[in-house]
Amino acid sequence: MRNSARPCCSIEQIGELLPAENPDVVIVDHMFPVGQIEAARFDRPAMVVCNTCVWRALDMWRKFIGMLVGLRTEAGFDPIPGDLESLWMVQDKLISTTLKSLDNVPGVLGQSHKLRHVGPVFERERHGIKVELPWQDDPSIPLVLVSFSTMPEQGSIKKFQNAIDALSNLPVRGVVSVGDSVDPTALRAPQNVAVFATVDHDDLMSRCNVVLTHGGHGTFMRVLKNGLPMIIVPGLGGDQPINAAAAEDWKVGCALPGDATTEMMREAVRQVLGSKSYRERATAISAQLAGADGSAKAADEIELLLPSHLRKAC
């Protein structure tokens, strides 16, 4: 099966690239309208991949894609359709990397029979490393993991510091993972909080009691896979407030505003740790995620688009 990973940015470039590369299947990101238009024109099977929920975020996606198309027109490019039915749903399939059961809300989307929920992709975090915590293990002291995205564009020293200060006078221990989002040395940590640039989140989630997070889909699913309750303080990602609302709907955690104060975070930690029901609900949902392999299921969906002779070769 041939494919191409070359970067392109205009309809003309993609229109030239596709016949030159002559792929057997075209796979387009859900936030790339011009790629979707050319994929539909090209005489090959095509699919759009959405790396989070579809139904829960449907209104957001309509607004977001409409905004992208509007910005393109304002920049002087030729107008293109701005509705999902003309971009996503003219393809052969729409893949969503979340569980169908976790994206089960009413909505109207033309040709929705093309939507396939394949489950989350739990890729190994290559940058994550196991860290030695500065305390002896003590199961009687709750461990709180704080992770507000590892991406620089979502970095906020104030947000991290508020979380650290929230934990400082609670009977807990905190592990803060900042990635490339902020400089760890810019944060003031008390004795019961340790700050690291990178950590192995799966390792820490196997040991912690609650996660304080931005609610990005990858982290959101990973927390649920580990059966943990969470407190979500959304960042810049458009689906993060939606995931925060879902966490409250499912009673697996608390949703706070993006500018949550130290006291708001402190009270949320008290609330979640003080009620067994959050952990029990998270554990129940984790059973649905046991063995989830979105990448393998997505690959199966791709292969089903191939002609039979190429499917045999795969």
Notes on the protein architecture:
The structure is a single chain. The chain is elongated. It has two domains: 11-121 and 293-313, Glycogen Phosphorylase B (Rossmann fold, 3-Layer(aba) Sandwich), CATH 3.40.50.2000; 143-289, Rossmann fold, CATH 3.40.50. With 314 residues, the chain is an alpha/beta fold. The protein is built from twelve helices and ten strands. Strands 7-6-5-8-9-10 form a six-stranded parallel β-sheet, with helices on both faces. Strands 1-2-3-4 form a four-stranded parallel β-sheet, sandwiched between helices. Helix 2 links the parallel strand 1 (26-29) and strand 2.
In short:
It contains twelve helices and ten strands. It has helices spanning 11-21, 33-41, 58-74, 84-87, 157-168, 201-205, 217-225, 240-249, 262-273, 276-289, 294-305, 308-313; strands spanning 26-29, 46-50, 93-96, 115-117, 143-147, 173-177, 193-196, 210-213, 230-232, 253-255.
